[in-house]
Amino acid sequence: MKANFNLAYRINPQTKEKMWYAVPSGKGVLDADETAAMAVADTTLSKGEYKHVMEVTSDKLISMVLSGITITIGDLGKLRLSFGSKGAASIDEFDTVTMIQNPKIIFTPSKKLKSAIEQATFEVEGVVEDGIKYGSLASYRKVKGLAPGGGTTEPGGEEDGGGSMG
Question: Are 9 and 140 in contact, with CB atoms under 8 Å apart?
């Protein structure tokens, strides 16, 4: 399966120099209606039925996760509650409001999802530099006057070998 990414020219926080990084290609978010339409596309379920089941499931699963039950979400993975805690010298000194820290929900991908990620082939979709997104590596190179090998292209089509992207 193909996974798309963009090349982004960003400052390396450790060295303060700009470098090229691969970043996942964000293509928006499916809202509940769009997710329902996609989920029922090859079934006899209606969008309304799917959305109702998801709503009821969400209501029930949220309280279960908060109670400490690990929930399996189909072939995607599992959700569980996690948090840290400060220690108290005695049981009577423990204050849940101030001592429980960083509560969060942890998602653990299933073997199937991990396998999909491990077997993914990564493909450059676009380039982002200075807040401008170029639709492809080729369009970035064209605008910047870079030849496919990374050098600049002179007006006569000759490559001068300079101006690499890295």
Answer: no
- Rounded CA separation 76/69 (Å): 17
Q: Which CATH superfamily is domain 2-135 in?
A: IHF-like DNA-binding proteins (4.10.520.10)
The residues near 47 (Cβ < 8 Å, ≥ 6 apart) are: 33, 36, 37, 40
Cα–Cα–Cα angle for 99, 103, 104, nearest 5°? 170
Task: Summarize pLDDT for 71-112 with one digit per residue, the tens.
Answer: 999 899 999 999 999 999 999 999 999 999 999 999 999 999
pLDDT at 120 over 70: yes
- β-strands 132-134, 77-85 pairing: unpaired
Structure tokens at 148: 């496919």
**Structural contact between residues 67 and 79, judged by C-beta atoms closer than 8 angstroms:** no
Under 8 Å CB-to-CB from 152, ≥6 apart: which residues? 145, 146, 159, 160, 162, 163
Taking the C-alpha atoms of residue 20 and residue 14, their distance in angstroms, rounded to an integer, is 14
